Amino acid sequence: MPTLRPMFQDRLQSQLVPVLQQAFKALFGHDLDAKAITFQSTRPEFEGDVTINVFPFLKVSGKGPEPTAQAIGEYLQANLDLVDRFNVVKGFLNIVIADSYWLAFLREAGQHDLLQFPATGKKVMVEYASPNTNKPLHLGHMRNIFLGFSVSRILESAGNEVVRVQVINDRGIHICKSMLAWQKFGDGETPESRGLKGDKLVGKYYVEFDRAYKKEIEELLAGGRTKEEAEKEAPILLEAQAMLLKWEANDPEVRALWAKMNGWCYDGFNATYDRMGVTFDRLYYESQTYVLGKNDVLEGVKKGVFYEKDGAVWVDNTKEGLDEKVLLRRDGTSVYMTQDIGTAIKRFEEYPGLSQLIYTVGNEQDYHFKVLFIILKKLGFSWADELHHLSYGMVDLPSGKMKSREGTVVDADDLMEEMVQEARTSGEQLSKLDDFTEAEKTALFEMIGMSAVKYYLLKVDPKKRMLFDPAASIDLQGHTGPFIQYTYARTQSLLRKVGTMDVWQHEHLGTWPLLPEERAVLKLLHQFPGVLNEGANRLDPSVVANHTYELVKAYNSFYQTVPVMKEEDPAKREFRLELSSCVAAVTKKAMWCLGIEVPERM
RNA sequence: GGUCCUGUAGCUCAGCUGGAUAGAGCACCUGCCUUCUAAGCAGGCGGUCGUUGGUUCGAAUCCAACCGGGAUCACCA
């Protein structure tokens, strides 16, 4: 993967490394490579914040593990103020970082957004939705959309300018099927007359088509045709194919129907996107892009990158361990790959400063993108190395795979509605919201329900296929979005009280032994920029999701065992308020990176 | 068959640039609301990290083979 973004340098490690190098020089007369040192956070059962494993250095030190660790520890303690003390357990050097360091860090964190990196000056395009216009969005689209949108937010936080893009597959045989079925069986009904969302109505006729098609096949089978013949010869299919030809010939009537039904579909999609909370900067319609690429391919033939065989144009990727692939059919028409080649080129033309292009598409297209990227590289585009397929695994149901034909797809609108209703049911049972207006409640339950779905889909490593268990996803406790929202609401409750009591002066923070609960929270805050950087480099929201959970879990533990407002020492109280405030800000921003909103009360 | 992804607790998932007795959530069991929001906290139960070899001082992590799950390999989109 291209590493465009600068590596985040952990501020603690960047201070430790040079002194460690000095230590190795002074103690063992060895020039230590900075990359040879790996830090790990100290396991909770030992005292310390950072741990260095000295086993790799035994050859250099010429001593056993414990004396080596001891010597390094002593050197660090003597030469670096932020090293307060240390202990050695077997080959592990556990370093305790001085409270003053943590306090200074907290002060800094209070003044800056830890999760907003300086501008990189880079522009990145993220394509994260590519629906067909013949059926409504479902659970699979939801993973795709939330994943890509979150990645776009993460990249933005990491300092990049982001262009969010949707590709709409608005032409082809699939939409003709819906159109034909509507013409035949629709009786002129519209989303308005029927009271149905536009995408649902179009989807309904896609199903109608399939039903009629199957019926015709059965009749043909009964008439003695083979299955294959029947599938090819069913009159309604032939009619749909004829309609596609008419569409391509710009037949006004077909085009008008096409525009009308696609319009219904877009209205439906837009309503779904609104509820999802996602937006696009640029839409690409396949009806406009499907003609692209042909000239680029012919250009490639001239350059000798592609070759002709049997009248068709091929690319040979056998050297790359792949196969040969047709790019233009014998009749000169395009295949899917052709238009993807053209569209990629067009995008870089449209956005001259673009440095990276990310396609959020399911892993069933891994091969397709591998081939696409190789082809663009062969055509000599300098940006070909900056193309990335953000591939994600399929979403399975407890009953198995989702199959539209078997009616087992989970509809996006239905699922969101169900989750919001579940949030309402549990929220009203808790009866903490008596002074909320009905509108406020509705907004809150919307926020909670949506966070449950989004977090559930985002906490899993994108490349793995995942199981969507409706019963588990509806859970609002434990490792869930609502749990994180709840913690945020807790911090806000505290900070509101401060507002009315005016006890928070933001004055200098004193020095005293930090409590373990406080340290745990500080360490997780301290690690967060590195986590965001990792998420941006790996294009993986799950690392951000999981670390946010770690943070709020530690904060809850702190909250439940350490007094904040009730602390009598004003300096400690202020420190804990500052800590709470910082946790709140970071949590809010991290959730923003996931495309999840966070409530002031719940 | 070739290629790619994947296999960790009853279930869903972290950990995988090699390092200390493998972590969470759910489920099940025990405590904790006259005290800053109990959508919470504290604790218990629960694992031959698919199998077998190899590399290493050290392997869930790297390598190989095998087994299981998935995807893909159209002059389809």
Short description:
With 602 residues, the chain is an alpha/beta fold. Helices cover 55% and strands 12% of the residues.
Structural overview:
55% of the residues lie in helices and 12% in strands. The protein contains 22 helices and 14 strands. The protein has helices at residues 11-28, 58-61, 65-79, 99-111, 139-157, 173-185, 191-194, 198-222, 227-233, 235-248, 252-276, 286-289, 294-303, 336-350, 366-378, 412-430, 438-458, 470-473, 481-501, 516-538, 541-561, 570-593, and strands at residues 39-41, 50-53, 83-89, 92-97, 123-129, 161-168, 282-285, 307-309, 312-316, 324-328, 354-362, 387-392, 395-396, 466-467. A five-stranded parallel beta sheet has the order 7-6-5-11-12. Strands 1-2-4-3 form a four-stranded antiparallel beta sheet. A three-stranded antiparallel beta sheet has the order 8-9-10. Helix 1 packs across helix 3, helix 6 (173-185) crosses helix 10 (235-248) and helix 20 (516-538) runs parallel beside helix 22. The radius of gyration is 29 Å and the shape is globular. Mean pLDDT is 92; it is low at 1-7. The structure holds one RNA strand of 77 nucleotides.
The largest pleated sheet is described as: 5 strands, parallel
Distance between the termini: 41 Å
Number of beta-strand segments: 14
Estimate nothing, just give the exact number of structural domains: 3
Q: Strand percentage, roughly?
A: 5-15%
